[in-house]
Design goal:
single chain; about 250 residues; 9 helices
């Protein structure tokens, strides 16, 4: 019984790895390797901490896998949020700490199951879609209200840059929801999140002289978000036009 169970588990794991490696283009593989190699080399040269470096490497790998539409992004993402929370705590970015532990960690688990139900059986990447104008307006209004409300809370806690920290936190919550729902517009919000986070970690780097790996991670996140918005925008249009109803893997 145990042998059969182990054999089945091994077969499923092998199939999962095969699917995750399927469909990569040369440019995408280059971007994945280059981004991680550049981050690692610069971080080691500037003697950053092992936790910061590992958090950054898993984060960069995660967002590139999200852009590719691969399920494994949630594995790397889970490791990233736990390590990043430790780095953010040291920098007194309490909004980021709460965001990662109380929000990203459970939503990574939720996102795994929601994406699994919407994987294209031919390409083995997640299906993409776009929001309506009404949804765009609703997201913008709720985001603005959340940013100002949460910045007040962070100011009471004595955190650094409460308004900037709040923008990063609230917009990250919104972007993660859009990501789980497979909306292309997630990348617009991620661009805003990444730009704000770059500012935060530039300040942290100037004040403390470390966390350079995290700063580089956010810079790569920003560049990746721009690239992936273009990619998802094109692919979501193609899916809607060419294949209005596509087969998915069902539980």
């Amino acid at each position: 019984m145990n042998e059969n169970t182990n054999a089945t588990a091994a077969a499923k794991f092998t199939e999962f790895i095969r699917n995750e490696l399927k469909g990569w283009k040369a440019g995408e593989i280059f971007w994945l390797i280059f981004a991680n190699a550049a981050l690692l080399a610069i971080s080691l040269y500037l003697h950053d901490t092992p936790v910061s470096i590992l958090a950054s490497l898993t984060g960069v790998t995660c967002v590139i896998l999200v852009g590719k539409g691969k399920m494994s992004n949630y594995i790397f993402g889970t490791v990233n949020v736990l390590l990043y929370a430790c780095v953010a705590w040291k920098a007194k970015y309490y909004g980021d700490v709460m965001l990662n532990l109380a929000y990203y960690f459970p939503t990574n688990i939720l996102g795994w199951f929601m994406w699994k139900k919407n994987i294209d059986t031919e390409t083995q990447v997640v299906q993409k879609k776009r929001m309506t104008v009404r949804q765009d307006i609703a997201v913008a209004v709720l985001s603005a209200a959340g940013i100002f409300g949460y910045s007040w809370v962070l100011k009471l806690l004595g955190g650094n840059l409460p308004l900037v920290d709040s923008m990063s936190t609230v917009l990250s919550v919104v972007a993660q929801i859009l990501m789980i729902k497979r909306f292309t517009e997630q990348w617009i919000v991620w661009i805003l999140v990444d730009a704000v986070s770059v500012i935060m970690w530039v300040v942290a780097f100037m004040n403390e002289g470390d966390s350079v790996a995290v700063l580089l991670m956010w810079i790569i996140f920003l560049l990746n978000a721009v690239i992936m918005f273009i990619k998802w925008y094109r692919e979501s249009a193609e899916e809607k036009t060419e294949n209005p109803v596509k087969k998915t893997v069902q539980e």
